[in-house]
Each structure stands twice: as C-alpha cells, then as structure tokens.
C-alpha cells in the first residue's frame, strides 16, 4: 500500500462530443487519463473518481440522474474505487474526499480531469492547502474557450495560463509521458 492516490475529476459524458458542454481536446485528455489510470490499477494504488452534479434539474450540464452526468466509459470506476459526488468546483468542499484520503494514509495526489480553469484549479489549490503533495498531469486535462468582456480566450491559452499558475506555486505539472516514465 502506498500513500499516493489518483484523483480523476469530472470526466463525465456532458464534456464529450454530443454532450451538453463539450470541451476542446477532451478525447485526447481522457485517453491520457486512461493511461495514468491503468498505471495506478496495475500497481494496485488508490483511485478516487469525482463526479459533479448540479443540484437542479435545469442545470446547463451535469443534471442529476442524466446520462451526461455519468462518468465517461474511458475511465469508469472498477469495483472498490470510490466515487465522490460533489456540487461545487472544489472536490473537497462538502464531500468526504479528505476523510477518504486521510483514512488511507494518502499524502500524495495525482490529479487530472476537467476543467482546467474551474474544478482542477479549485481542487488542486484546496489539496495543497490541506497539506497534500500534488502532481497535475496537464495533458490529461481539458477545458474550453472562454469569453471575457468581448474577448474570446482559446482553450489552449486558458489551459496554459492555469497550468502555469499551478506549476508556479501549487503542484508539479507534468505530461502523461513524463509521469509514466517515472
């Protein structure tokens, strides 16, 4: 048993093509997430899946009970892998995630999933605030174009800005290839 866990954040159907909120590069990110997930399973290390649902049926995406709110088939949980349901960007807020990790003696987290600028950012920062050592697998994370005051910011730039900020003060930010070659 190691003191490390993989946290897969919000790789849910609404973020994929045909979903209600598709992300740029989600299929490549999910394929990379699957590679990291396979490594954790091969080594019999802890895996925790995070699934977001908005509390209202009229949600823009991740509506309760919908197909879009379900975890995508590329990273479906195996028996025994916990799924933490959240209603906020930060996967620690009002969930049992910290209790679950601390109960297993987990001190190191590898985090990937979606979206770079919201749930990944919020969860990584909270994890560091709680004292976890965090690694982020940047190419196993996706986001979307954003708009601010009439300016569209392409997803690639959104992602780069958030990964740069996390790498500056919060986490080790690595590629899937670098992560798997450790």
From TrEMBL:
Q: Keyword Zinc-finger: yes or no?
A: no
Per its UniProt record, what Gene3D superfamilies does this chain match?
A: Isochorismatase-like
Query: What PANTHER family does its record include?
Result: ISOCHORISMATASE HYDROLASE, PEROXYUREIDOACRYLATE/UREIDOACRYLATE AMIDOHYDROLASE-RELATED
Name of the protein in its database record: Cysteine hydrolase
The answer on whether this UniProt entry bears the keyword Hydrolase reads: yes
Q: Mind listing the GO molecular function terms for this protein?
A: hydrolase activity
Q: Which keywords are on file for this protein?
A: Hydrolase
Q: Where is the Isochorismatase-like domain?
A: 5-148
Output the InterPro entries linked to this UniProt entry: Isochorismatase-like_dom, Isochorismatase-like_hydrls, Isochorismatase-like_sf
